[in-house]
Amino acid sequence: MKEELLKQYADKETKYITPKQKEKVIAFLTKYKDHYSEETIDFLLNEMDKDIYEQEIALLRQIFVASNFYEDDSKNPYLKYLRVFEEYFSYDQNIVDVGAGRFPADATLLKERQKSGTIAVYDPNILPIENKDLIIKKEKFTLQTDLTGQDLLFGIYPCEATEAMIRKANQEHKNLFLGLCGCSHYNDYEIFFLHKDPRNWQEDMYYLLRGTNQDKSEIKVVESEYPILIKKLK
Fold this sequence. Notes:
Rossmann fold
């Protein structure tokens, strides 16, 4: 059935993406079809035909990076975060990218700019990609994750892993660059029900970062679509 969906869409005309771009997306989904549900493939194919710079579906954005669609750096949705990153940190260190997604778009762009150092990528749903430049960890990032030799924790919308990132960064004295998501991730249902506005959760994550900051590192909040939390060791 997945094959039929992909074949059907291959014959459809598109308005916004080019035939070559459509071909690359279908080739990507065909290659990794065993790692996407039929419903997800159907959804992605139906959402694909939009201006690539206005695309909001993260799974499609990741495929666009994998397929080198973003030619205009000024509009690349990932690079807006890296431009903020550059104001505070060097790429040339050992970086852990948490919650990287099916295809590690952030890590790929970080590695392109890195002259020295390593990038380890954590996500339980990451695809079996072939990339010798990245250290792939198909697992959840937790409080038990070994950070020996690592310098900085990096995450854009890491969702459930956010609290663990903050606690680990402070416990093990690591730099932190964390783009919060627009969700609410309270584990307690009653708290979630009373404070389901994402701004409550985002504020709590900021206070958690400040409250557990034992090494008195510099902490900043950069306003973006959602707040970016930054912890820089002195």
